[in-house]
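tl;dr need the bound structure. longer version: we got a ligand (zinc ion) that a collaborator sent over and nobodys looked at where it sits. i said id run it. heres the input, straight from their email, havent touched it
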Amino acid sequence: MSFEGYYQILCVNGHLFEVDYMHLDYYSDEHELCPDCNTRLPKNFFHNLVDDTNYDTCDIIPDFEWEKLCIVEKDEYGLKRYRRPTEQEHAKMRNYIQTWSEEEGFKYTYVGKEEN
Ligand SMILES: [Zn+2]
C-alpha cells in the first residue's frame, strides 16, 4: 500500500491548517499559502507529517497538545494562534495514535516514552 497522509502546518502567524501529503509534494517547488491569512509559508515552515496509510492515524498532534501552545485565543480572523513547538516538543507531541470506534468516537493513545 502506498503512503497516505497529510501535513499539520503552522503559518508564520500561527494558524494551524492541514494539507494533503500528495498535494504538498506535488507543489514542492512552490510554497503553499496559509488558507486563513494568505501568507506565503517560509522555507522552514513548521510541518508535522501524519501517517494515515493504515486504519489508524499515526504521528498525529492532537488538539489538546496544540492547546498548550496557544498564544492568541481569537485573532482578527477569529482564529487561534499557536507558537511553533521546539524540536523537542514536536518529537513528544506527535507520539499519538488516533483511532475511531462507534462506541467511543475518536480517541488518542499516547505511544511515546513517559517523562522521567
Ligand atoms: Zn495564517
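gonna send this back to them w/ a short note. The first helix runs from residue 21 to 26.
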